[in-house]
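Chains adopt folds. We examine one example:
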Amino acid sequence: MRVGAHLRQDANPVATAEELGIDIFQMFVTDPQKWNKPEPHPFAEQIRNSDIDVVVHSSYQINVASLNNRLRMPSRKAVEQQAAAAAELGAIGLVVHGGHLRDGEDAAEGFANWRKLFERQQDKGGFGVPILIENTAGGDHAMARTLESIERLWDAVGDFEQAGFCLDTCHAWAGGEELVGLVERIRAITGRIDLVHLNNSRDEFDSGRDRHANLESGHIDADVLAELMARADAPGILETPADGIPADLAYLTGR
């Protein structure tokens, strides 16, 4: 079981990872709440030269599925820019949320927009890193909340070499997907799980709320999370409250 953590981007993530004793970490390359283009990271050389793997999480406002040009076009550009920044760091992938549509919009167009993202970038030579599409917690018009929507999304992008999948356990729980057997159900659709976001939930099943908790303090049985992590056979990232991450890691390694 290989599990790391999401770390702050304004500190030296390699030093923090070494302190935690992890061999993979996740970080942002720009302010996750803004459209800013990534700037060169002050610890880029250390990140590239370290034996510790890095995965980059894209900014939150990105929604490549949107039918609104004012949102979709900057989202495409942001994915391209942040993927380039991730490649510059030697990252193993860029995590991007599945996105959503507005009430009354045709879901087929949203899935088609995901395909166009890959088609357009393929014409430019690719992203430089895999794009790991992450399931999301809430929204009636989300592109990747339910297994049905994930299947439709994968029908649109699954034939692209750089399309990967990130399974978030809190999001799945909040989205109404039982975690027992979920790895097998996801793999039956995507054929792969490239990364796990291993998070407990502060809210009840099918709440639609994306509020993470440390492994032993949420509504999900911690043993179920550990079993899912083992079955996924993929690297894991804790996106849990920072002060509880050492205990989360100790729980996983001490089982």
Remarks:
- The domain at 3-243 is CATH 3.20.20.150 (TIM Barrel).
- The longest strand covers residues 163-168.
- The chain has a mean pLDDT of 97.
